[in-house]
Each structure stands twice: as C-alpha cells, then as structure tokens.
Design goal:
mainly alpha; 3 strands; three-stranded antiparallel sheet; 7 helices; elongated; 145 residues; 51% helix
C-alpha cells in the first residue's frame, strides 16, 4: 500500500483472516449500509476498465461484465493511520486539544520561517518591505483543556 486505499478481489473470503485488523480497516463495496461503498465500487470499475484497455485482460472484462454478481467478492481497505490525517473524528479521539494546538503552532511557525528563509535566499523583501502590523492576540483558556 502507498498510504491510500487498496482493493482486493476476494472470492473465497480469505482477506479478513490475512490482515492485521489493528492496522487496517476493511469494507465491502456490496455493503448497502456503508456510505463509502458506492465510491469504492466506482473506483474498482474504473481501474478494471483501465486495466482491461491497457492489457486486453479477459479476467478484467469478465469482472466488468459480471460486476453486479461479483461485487460482493470485492473488498476495500485503508490503513488506520491514514485516518489520523484525514478523518476529523479520528484525529480528535487520538490527540488532546492541547497537543493539536501545539502541533498547529509548530506548523505555523515552521511555515513562516520557511517563507523568511526563501525570501532571504532569493534576496526579496519580506511583506514587500513593509513592517508587519502588531496584532494583539488574546488567548483564553478553554474550560475543557
């Protein structure tokens, strides 16, 4: 996997026994209760079509021709770690508010330092040579922090 979704044709249902459920989430594109199933079904169809066009694969064409009956044999998966970067609920469960604020502050400072370094390297004035306005920042303590 390259940090994204994976798709598996699993006609014998072996996939759940072969993956680490601690690190991988698996879903079925045939699950009508899964709000993401249709998206993944479309992705699989598209990739099968691309593969069939590129290789002339009879298996890819057979899967496309029989997609409605074979749909239950396809699974999709994603690394749980990916959720920590893309899913708001997972991020909030995994990190405290203080950690998130610290991380945001560090990222913002690094971004500003990078802009300064690039301007210095390229001998360009920062903020078009203007002095930044002094802003008063008021921080309030959150009762939940």
């Amino acid at each position: 996997m390259s940090g994204g979704f994976f798709y598996q044709y699993d006609p014998y249902g072996d996939l759940p026994k072969k993956v680490s459920h601690d690190s991988i989430l698996i879903g079925s594109i045939a699950d009508q209760d899964d709000p993401h199933a249709a998206f993944h079904a479309d992705a699989i169809r598209m990739m099968l079509a691309w593969h069939g066009e590129a290789t002339g694969s009879e298996k890819a064409q057979w899967l496309l021709d029989n997609f409605d009956s074979e749909k239950s044999n396809f699974a999709y998966g994603l690394p749980r770690a990916l959720l920590l970067y893309q899913d708001t609920d997972a991020i909030l469960k995994a990190k405290s508010r203080k950690d998130l604020i610290d991380e945001l502050g560090t990222a913002l400072a690094a971004h500003q330092v990078r802009k300064f370094k690039l301007a210095y390297r390229d001998r360009k004035p920062i903020l078009n040579g203007k002095r930044p306005a002094m802003a008063r920042l008021t921080l309030t303590r959150c009762s939940r922090c």
